[in-house]
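Lab meeting notes turned into a lecture example. A postdoc, R.K., suggested we walk through two folding results consecutively so the class can see how the record format repeats. The first protein's sequence and structure tokens come next.
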Amino acid sequence: MFNKILIAEDHECSNLSVQKVLEDLKIPKVDHVYYCDDALSYVKKSLESRPYDLLITDLSFEEDHRKQIIKNGRELIKCCKDASPSLKVIVFSLEHRLGVIDLLF
């Protein structure tokens, strides 16, 4: 079972539904961020003490007023796996194009 999970999702309603499921599963530590750059920062910071077991992320993030280096979930997954190779990832997305999904494997 996972003990420490990070959710990267920019739509609050989706984020809250995932958080509720994790709460029902009694996951002890769940953090959430709305930006990819923040997610990578959290993953790197967690390596100093207790790393995340799981990243749950969307593939697409909408641009807004805040400038981001990491633009989407695919880039985020790569950066997080580079920083923490044992990190498990679940993609929570409405993406339905097989080509995009195949690239994740």
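The second example is placed directly after the first for contrast:
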Amino acid sequence: MDAVFDPWNPDFVADPYPAYAELRARGRVHRFEPTGQWLVPGHADVSALLRDRRLGRTYLHRFTHEEFGRTPPPAAHEPFHVLNDHGMLDLEAPDHTRIRRLVSKAFTPRRVERLVPVVERLARELVDGLLAAGGGDLLADVAEPLPVAVIAETLGIPVSDRALLRPWSAAICGMFELNPDEETARRAVTASVEFSAYLRALIAERRTRPGDDLVSALIAAHDEGDRLSEQEMISTCVLLLNAGHEATVNTTANGWWTLFRNPGQLAALRAGQAALSTAVEELLRYDTPLQMFERWVLDDIEIGGTVVPRGSEVALLLGSANRDPARFERPDELDLSRARNPHLTFGAGLHYCLGAPLARVELAASFGELLRRAPTLGPVAEPRWQPGYVIRGLKELLVEV
């Protein structure tokens, strides 16, 4: 099994999909000893387990570390875990339910709707720069700045401070890779301390001078007298930045690289033979930005005749599920007109991505601008992939217009 699933191998990271096909052919669940996880590759199982209440993003609402057979994290890592463990992505009911309800009162569909002209303006300005330069790095010049600027504008973070956000996010997200080393943990802790202090000061300022921004709305959000604590607000803001841009950045760059390698589909999209919204869903499916979503087994479960005991961790392979021929016709073909597309890129169940509507707005804006205004956009060189597997993306994507 180790030879098939090799997430630290650059060749595997560059193209994990043949290995996924072999995993699906071998069975519904596989023990992976290097991480002590159970790999689940099939769409039906991944979709069901994302909704299964016998699994959780945390176990601390029911067990201590010791009761669950786990070693507590080192004390030196505490700032990262305090930040991460108060975000709704890593909580279960009743805390998750309460926080998501309160955040939903602030991060409303109307707020996303009001962001559409902002997103379109930012995308237009970034594409202006790329066109004026005759090309550049699509990742650094368009894909990264757009969602970071959108989230920063949403939170009310001044333009002068926005350069801090991406490095903080990248350092924190390093902890979501498999078996992170101590240097990765050190960088994540430092970023957690600095980002938390920054947001604490921003929240204090908004308490005295509220504005029309999400931080002010989070402060004001209440439900039957219940409010978010300061730590919950800080963790929510960090989660919105991290989750709110990693998927968009990688879907944009990975998506354009996919289009360049499928010129017939790109030509059809440029000719209007496929709806942009449908094409975006297919790009989200075809090369999934978040390859794996991990859950703890809170009560014994059975998958395909194999009992996965309480205390285990399952690794739900979203990238594999999105290429499962049992769910998708011709799954390894890019079909920008694919009408039935139940991909799992944004998850499912209680932890379905709260920012999915905003991500779709951002992707439609950036792809739309480039399709309209850069009809000869093409790659200069074959890109290299970042070493990370869980959050999978390119190092750069050099293009000319």
